[in-house]
Design goal:
Blueprint (H helix, E strand, L loop, with lengths): L9 E6 L2 E7 L20 E2 L8 E3 L13 E7 L4 H4 L2 H11 L4 E7 L9 H10 L6 E3 L4 H5 L4 E2 L1 E5 L4 E7 L4 H14 L31 E2 L19 E4 L10 E9 L4 E3 L5 E6 L3 E8 L6 E7 L17 E4 L3 E7 L7 E7 L4 E8 L1
Parallel strand pairs: 5-6, 6-7
Antiparallel strand pairs: 1-2, 2-8, 3-10, 4-7, 5-9, 9-10, 11-21, 12-13, 13-14, 13-15, 14-21, 15-20, 16-19, 16-21, 17-18, 17-20
Length: 362
């Protein structure tokens, strides 16, 4: 694919007012999502094979040949990635608006974490996220490799002759992307559609990040990519150990408390009462987590600067900071209003057998 996989996922590209998020699998780098004119679209190559999909959801298997005559938008995503999640309302709207004009959107679910390979979890995510277009389950990254892709989300725009005419890495440039789809549809002979950009009303968790206030990076808990860990003695790999919080935390440092076993991609606690603390600066704080034992649930309670979150709680907790992890996914725990400042977040797990993967922010 890209030689040895470094598993570096998120990078931010800043250029004046433009700051866009993308998740990356492979070598370190940024997704350049600056606006380009849409009057001339080069031919970037032929559409690659979709044959590597383990399963198709919402569709029979599709091929480049069977899609000839259609304009195709291929979206590489994974369901726990906040950057992918924030792109979905636009994909849903475009699919609905242009499906009768010859557009086919294909979501290629290319997992990062092991739980994202589980077909039951993928089917749940597709239904919960209201995705009615075809989904190719790319568990072995075969389609990802065929496209030589590196990012979540990554959009590839394919014309009716099967040629890739544009790509978009990372969030943003939505009006430009829709204009490109319209241009390709017109080239294919489509007529009579409204050229006004689709009206989008993202749900709370799908709302664009507050980029100007965002000063905390995506932070992994598993030792393969963990950084800025502050508990004394560091992380112990693949061994259960009792951790303790430090006396104070600097910005973007985090720590564990209680008995945890830290693996490559996650940390697991099999006892109740374990905790995590993180000092952050962002409007939104998310945590990818879930029960370590399938079929169980894990209650948790969060605090901000030692107090219940009240009006700053996210959609997955109440005003007192209480919530329950039912399935492995991204949970929105904090949603603040301006002005944004540094705060200390803490989560306590009230039940055993929790698995925690990564913090993300918005």
């Amino acid at each position: 694919m890209f030689g040895s996989i470094n598993w570096n996922r998120r990078r931010f590209l800043g250029n004046g007012a433009l700051i866009l998020g993308a998740c990356q699998l492979g070598r370190v780098g940024c997704a350049d999502a600056q606006s380009k004119g849409v009057s001339r679209l080069p031919i970037e190559g032929e559409m690659s094979s979709l044959a590597g999909a383990a399963v198709w959801i919402n569709s029979t298997p599709l091929t480049p040949t069977s899609l000839r005559g259609k304009v195709v938008l291929v979206d590489f995503w994974t369901f726990s990635c906040i950057n992918s999640i924030r792109t979905l309302p636009y994909l849903r709207a475009w699919s609905e608006k242009y499906k009768d004009k010859g557009l086919v959107i294909i979501g290629v679910q290319s997992p990062e974490f092991t739980f994202e390979k589980n077909l039951d979890n993928v089917r749940w995510a597709v239904q919960n996220m209201r995705l009615g277009y075809p989904i190719a389950v790319d568990n072995e990254h075969a389609i990802w490799d065929a496209f030589n892709n590196e990012y979540w989300p990554a959009l590839y725009f394919v014309d009716a002759r099967g040629r890739i005419r544009h790509h978009q890495f990372g969030e943003g440039a939505y009006e430009q992307s829709e204009a490109i789809l319209q241009q390709l549809l017109v080239e294919a002979g489509a007529r009579g559609f409204d050229k006004t950009p689709a009206s989008i009303e993202p749900s709370s968790i799908e709302r664009a990040a507050a980029w100007n206030s965002l000063k905390s990076p995506e932070t992994y808990v598993g030792y393969r990519q963990a950084e800025n860990f502050a508990s004394s003695g560091g992380l112990h790999q693949d061994k259960e150990r009792t951790y303790a919080f430090p006396s104070n935390l600097n910005l973007n440092r985090w720590a564990l408390s209680g008995d945890w076993k830290v693996g490559k991609e996650s940390a697991i606690a099999d006892k109740a009462g374990t905790r995590i603390v993180y000092r952050f600066h962002a409007r939104d704080l998310h945590l990818v987590m879930g029960p370590a034992v399938r079929g169980t649930t894990v209650r948790y309670r969060i605090s901000v600067d030692g107090q219940a979150p009240h009006s700053t709680h996210g959609v997955d907790v109440d005003e007192q900071g209480n919530g329950t992890a039912i399935e492995p996914r991204l949970y929105q725990l904090i949603r603040q209003t301006e002005p944004i400042a540094d705060h200390e977040f803490e989560i306590e797990f009230l039940d055993p057998d929790v698995e925690v993967f990564v913090f993300t922010f918005g």
